[in-house]
């Protein structure tokens, strides 16, 4: 190639490079990230999101915690918790409001090299380890067609700018500053559910039965073996009139005799009313920490079916949580035994809750990456120690007060006879007029004959004294007969009125008694329906609760019975007025304060 040709080639190459630069440079200059300021992110309707997924990074384990909630067929569930029902409508609206129409206040960065500093590194990145910092929270919302409405990463808060955070779209490097409240993007399981498990009022509790025992369970070649430490069985009833608990039955287990024997409260002992109040309050405030789906094969009343009893994997899974399928009773019926006893709470509406307590579950994952913090050197408490729980409901008709029916006033004896022979009397009444008429006809015939005879006898010119006397007697007799007839009519009228009053009262009482019976039957029906509804909700799950709550609910005899205070001794919370009359310290004003 000649020098001229080489020169032309270089010129052509330079021209092409210049043209390329000319084409690219304007496009580079036209993309001005600052022009994004003032624009809106995430423009969609508040009710459009039907699925929310939040992913957080746990640096301690170098793993992610995912929380997901979704609506399917009109029902909100938590797929990340095996489809547990969610109370999510309000929470979802708050989460959507947190992300919708976020105004870009400024652009903080346009390069991926700054992502770690601003805390917007994708937590789902495959190359993260426990040393990585600046990992953000990835939030995805999609509609009912699973089309993404937003997919963004929320980073660190902006320094000295309250409520402002760094965010970016997952598929872009540009980092924006927007105003939002990340607290609305909760991954706390309790924020998305109805965490009041039993939904009861402590004032409705009328009886509590406690089975205090511990059982260690193990699977051997011979089957399930248990080391059963039985301690006591206690039944307490609540008297609403005195606002105090009373002992219905107290029994402790005699290990030598291997049977339960009656426990008698000593003269210097009494029931611990404060502990029993805490028990009732604990049932009222029984909050969920976590849930897990129970193994297949258990019925709603926690009975273990034959197939379940033969499923070693299911039995092992159950026993790991402190529950074991066992054959109990004379008929060897399969049932579930818990490792830490059980409590039955009976309500005045007949609904009974049976709570069976299993093993501890340490550090339950709730979706939060930050572990529960305790003071340095402090022992773990019930706040970060959790326990498995099985719950079922059943109906006890004896808990519903039977109606008191008012006795009906007695009917008069003659009215009873009348009532018994009413049809016969009607027939007699129909015959009586005919008899009277016949008798009347005979009488009239006789009188007619007498009259004709009299007409044949020649009349006398004047009446004799005897005739005058007979006439006067006849008039007096007629007057007496009329008086007796009036008196009889008055007595009959009075009896009729009295009978009518009694019949009216009986009718009113019968109606009231029927109303009470109907109300009683309605309570039974409502209670049974409530039990069915509860078991439908409880049936697929066993729950996880705080160990602190368990310790309030599951009492032993040592906590249930306490020593009486010595005479003149006052509790720490007693006021000065309760200590006694000044100058007479041994004369209390009102005794021990009533339990609250």
Give a description of the structure.
- This protein has helices spanning 3-30, 89-99, 115-118, 273-284, 306-310, 312-320, 413-420, 422-456, 465-538, 547-553, 557-560, and strands at residues 40-41, 51-58, 63-72, 75-78, 84-85, 102-103, 106-109, 137-142, 148-157, 164-169, 175-179, 205-220, 223-239, 244-254, 259-262, 269-271, 290-293, 323-328, 333-338, 342-347, 351-362, 385-395, 541-546, 561-563.
- Among the domains are: 33-192, no CATH class; 202-403 and 535-558, no CATH class.
- It is elongated, with a radius of gyration of 46 Å.
- It is of the alpha+beta class.
- A hairpin with a 3-residue loop joins strand 20 and strand 21 (351-362).
- The strands form five sheets. Strands 5-4-3-2-8-9-10-11-7 form a nine-stranded antiparallel beta sheet, covered by helices on one side. A nine-stranded antiparallel beta sheet has the order 15-14-13-12-20-21-22-23-17.
- Residues 22-30, 364-380, 421-461 and 573-596 have low confidence and may be disordered.
- InterPro entries: DUF4340.
- Residues 76-298 form the DUF4340 domain.
- Residues 492-514 have a biased composition (Basic and acidic residues).
- Keywords: Signal.
- This is DUF4340 domain-containing protein.
């Amino acid at each position: 190639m000649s020098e001229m040709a080489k020169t032309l080639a270089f010129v052509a190459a330079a021209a092409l490079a210049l043209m390329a630069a000319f084409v690219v440079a304007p496009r580079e200059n036209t993309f001005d990230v600052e022009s994004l300021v003032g624009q809106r992110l995430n423009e969609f309707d508040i009710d459009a999101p039907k699925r929310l997924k939040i992913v957080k990074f746990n640096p301690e384990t170098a793993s992610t915690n995912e929380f997901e909630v979704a609506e399917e067929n009109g029902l909100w569930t938590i797929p990340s918790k095996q489809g547990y029902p969610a109370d999510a409508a309000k929470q979802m609206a708050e989460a959507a409001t947190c992300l919708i129409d976020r105004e870009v206040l400024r652009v903080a960065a346009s390069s991926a090299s700054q992502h770690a500093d601003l805390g917007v590194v994708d937590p789902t990145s495959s190359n993260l380890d426990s040393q990585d910092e600046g990992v953000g929270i990835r939030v995805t919302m999609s509609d009912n067609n699973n089309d993404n409405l937003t997919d963004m990463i929320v980073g660190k808060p902006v320094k000295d700018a309250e409520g402002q955070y760094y965010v970016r779209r997952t598929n872009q490097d540009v980092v924006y500053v927007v105003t939002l409240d990340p607290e609305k993007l909760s991954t706390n399981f309790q924020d998305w559910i109805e965490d009041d498990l039993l939904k009861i009022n402590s004032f409705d509790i009328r009886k509590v039965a406690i089975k205090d025992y511990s059982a260690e369970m193990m699977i051997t070649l011979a089957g399930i073996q248990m080391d059963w430490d039985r301690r006591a069985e206690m039944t307490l009833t609540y008297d609403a009139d005195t606002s105090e608990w009373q002992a219905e039955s107290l029994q402790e287990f005699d290990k030598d005799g291997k049977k339960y024997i009656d426990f008698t409260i000593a003269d210097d002992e009494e029931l611990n009313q404060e502990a029993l109040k805490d028990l009732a309050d604990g049932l009222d405030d029984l909050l969920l920490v976590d849930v897990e789906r129970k193994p297949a094969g258990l019925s709603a009343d926690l009975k273990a079916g034959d197939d379940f009893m033969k499923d070693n994997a299911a039995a092992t899974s159950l026993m790991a949580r402190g529950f074991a399928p066992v054959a109990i009773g004379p008929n060897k019926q399969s049932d579930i035994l818990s490792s830490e006893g059980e409590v039955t709470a009976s309500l005045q509406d007949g609904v009974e809750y049976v709570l069976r307590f299993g093993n501890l579950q340490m550090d339950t994952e709730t979706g939060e990456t930050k572990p529960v913090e305790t003071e340095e050197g402090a022992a773990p408490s019930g706040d970060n120690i959790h326990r498995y729980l099985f719950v079922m409901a059943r109906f006890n008709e004896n808990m519903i007060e039977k109606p008191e029916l008012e006795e009906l006033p007695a009917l008069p004896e003659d009215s009873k006879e009348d009532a018994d022979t009413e049809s016969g009397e009607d027939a007699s009444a129909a015959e009586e007029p005919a008899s009277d008429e016949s008798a009347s006809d005979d009488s009239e015939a006789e009188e007619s004959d007498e009259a004709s005879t009299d007409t044949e006898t020649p009349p006398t010119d004047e009446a004799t004294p005897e005739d005058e006397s007979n006439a006067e007697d006849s008039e007096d007799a007629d007057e007496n007969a009329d008086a007796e007839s009036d008196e009889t009519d008055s007595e009959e009228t009075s009896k009729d009125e009295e009978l009518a009053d009694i019949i009216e009262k009986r009718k009113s009482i019968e109606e009231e008694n029927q109303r009470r019976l109907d109300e009683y039957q309605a309570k039974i029906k409502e209670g049974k329906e409530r039990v069915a509804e509860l078991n439908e909700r409880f049936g697929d799950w066993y729950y996880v609760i705080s160990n602190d709550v368990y310790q309030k609910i599951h009492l032993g005899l040592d906590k249930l019975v306490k020593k009486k205070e010595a005479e003149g001794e006052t509790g720490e919370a007693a006021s000065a007025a309760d200590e006694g009359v000044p100058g007479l310290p041994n004369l209390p004003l009102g005794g021990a304060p009533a339990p609250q």
